[in-house]
Amino acid sequence: MKTIIEPFRIKSVEPIYMSSREERESYIKDAHYNLFALPSQRVLIDLLTDSGTSGMSAAQWAGIMIGDESYAGSPSYLRFEKAVRHLMPFRYIIPTHQGRAAERILFGVAVKKGQYVLNNTHFDTTRANIESLGAFAVDLVIDEGLDPSSMHPFKGDMNTEKLTAFIADKGAENIPLCMITITNNSGGGQPVSLENIRAVSKICKKHHIPFFIDACRFAENAWFIKMREDGYKNTPVSDIVREIFSLADGCTMSAKKDGIANMGGWLALNNPAWEEQCRNILILTEGFPTYGGLSGRDLEAIAQGLEEVVQDDYLHYRIASTEYVGRHLHEAGVPVLLPVGGHAVYLDARAFLPHIPSLHYPGQSLAVALYIEGGIRGCEIGTVMFGRQPNGTEQPGKMDLVRLAIPRRVYTQSHMDYVVEVIIDVFGKRDSLQGMKIIEEPPSLRHFTARFDWRTEDHSKLEKNTAVG
Ligand code: F0G
Fold this sequence. Notes:
The chain is of the alpha/beta class. Helix content is about 40%, strand content about 10%. The relative contact order is 0.16. Ligand F0G binds near residues 100, 126, 214 and 265. Ligand F0G binds next to helix 4 and helix 5.
């Protein structure tokens, strides 16, 4: 059959609060044109993030009731640890309340001021955790990963030549960690090939640089490997996952993504000296090592989620439904990042709104327009998120994207048909969209709380966008 159906039935439903265009115009003004400031009940289709927004299964909810809330030695921890280790065979598994807590603990132990942490592309909290230590977060994704129209099957791959050259230039002693993010969220949800993970692991081993994986969307990445990489068509997803992690010294994970849970994360590693230090910080800031920052019931939900997330039927539906949205937009001429990633469709706002220069935030303008026209909440990933430099200056981001992240098992195909219709409608009137300016911003991670307003200049008089991707 051509139609790929959702591999679940719906037992419990949540209302969507409808709103008119006029109401949304006033709601977004009240929110100072920052979509993070909108109360979620004023949103029709919430594609702000796929993080912590998944629909849990009946078996996960059952696990919530079984969760054992003992301070130490909870059987829920043992079930969690077993489920994680089944897929990620590391020696130590440290639960945290979410992914960034695992990052903060790891970097706090491993990274010193002035050092360099490498990644294909750092996610924003990962970068911020590194920069807050006075270290540098360096992105080494392949060139195709920065070209929105390149059809490379693994646009999340790291450029191994640049990696080798960087190590030669700065010295391995100044690189406490090299990471790879699967899938490459800030680069468009693009997968990394096993061949690339193997090559990076080899280079790191040669230079004694610990190699960690930012594992948030490991199952989606494994599905892409199964579909696109030679030799894996008949390999079970869980075997591909184990192969990925067997090449690394550890990982940080947000269970809010491919844990299909609403909260949680972990840090996993093999190095006993690091583990001891990490555990001590964990006890200081997160909790006792058998619960981290979590309840026993969260640990149960994650353990069950990990069993479900590697199932073929689930991944087939998951990746096909994201691709469905991207394909319909592409066929209508809307510039989307290709190939479509795993958890999100990324609109190329720079190509969508060529009359708005990067420093006038075309991504923010487009995200606000999608909200006003259709109540859709997406997220700018571009100059607003990455334009502010550590030295205080501002530069165009490498790309100006609007991410429409699709929560797992939450929306149906008709919700997605509506999303496509709204975007095509906005595309039809794109010339009328204006750029934006920032009225107020915090010193870091400004996209969460900055206040915006429209620019009123006539963009036809402005220089066309010349920023290179
Ligand atoms: N790494 C990646 C690649 C992520 O996408 C995220 C979160 C984190 C680390 C941090 O995990 O939220 O549990 O602390 N990404 C979410 C998003 C917030 O919307 O993409 P966390």
